[in-house]
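Human: Not sure, check this?
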Amino acid sequence: MESRGEKSVAGVKTFKTHQCQYCSYSTYFHYLLVRHTRTHTGERPYSCPHCPYRSSRKDYLKHHINTHASVTTE
């Protein structure tokens, strides 16, 4: 039974590869392709609520936000 980009070959599931439209990168996971594509487009959808910093990845933003917590004012 095939569904959503999955193919069955001799009873073994294989998965659809997602190909980057800008380069030769390919992956089995759509979310990785979306993340990779941002390296070409420059999209930075995640923004810091404390400063103008913007990031292409949510985990980078979380790490950045922690830098605000470690800054002390005198």
